[in-house]
Write the structure tokens for this entry.
Amino acid sequence: MFDLDSYLARIALPSRVTVDADGLARLQWAHRQAIPFENLDVRLGRPIAIDSASVSAKLVTAKRGGYCFEQNRLLLDALAAHGFAARPILGRVWLRATDVPPLTHTLSVVHIDGQDWVADAGFGGSYSPPMPLVDGAEATAPDGARFRLVRDVQHGWMLLRHGHPGLTDGRSTGEGWEPQYSFTIDHVWDADLAMGNHWTSTAEESRFRQATIASIILPRGFATLTDRHYRRRVAEDETAATIADPRVYRMRMSLMFGIDLTPEETATLFAA
């Protein structure tokens, strides 16, 4: 049984949201500001479980973060507990892609008053608000970045972003409308999610096997720590640094991302 009260406390919402588009936006926004995107368990050699109980135990009870397969499982459970009609879909991340990328991203389709919306609590590259699934639909994120949904002949739908690269995880060039990820609204089975999660967490080609990543959405900005490279941008103020001391790394993980590491975990991640 999903513990909605514990989830709402985790994301600092005092009560349930309304079951409408405004409620969906409010829930996703609170989720992304409270729960960091991170792949630390992958880098620590731990398996990533994406069943509801395991995800809740990690992201809610243990106050850790996770990547898309974890984050959007949690969001789906919270949506269902509120009474939203929602289901998972799969996508391909196009940032820095040189060929057709694999299906390693998941997000949600939410049906509200006869209209499908896409919601995503697990894209670590930037923050995109929930959007109606309409060709040409646009939304502006609280940090000022613009997002657009367009139909894609080969890949179903494409999400585009136009905004400052400092408000991303570093893969953006900031040059015009950049493809973020594509997706279809085909039915997704648990086995499909399990396969995508397995590849993402174990394949040597996976970005999450090659870099240690943490990011968090700020009310008017974005902060990220990729390996030892830290960057935080709020409005026009940007800070960047390379961390040279594991003690500073551990402190930064705790103070900025809310992730409390043991000395042993810190040593492993810092040396990776």
Notes: The mean pLDDT is 97. The longest strand covers residues 103-112. Residues 17 and 23 are 5 Å apart (CA to CA).
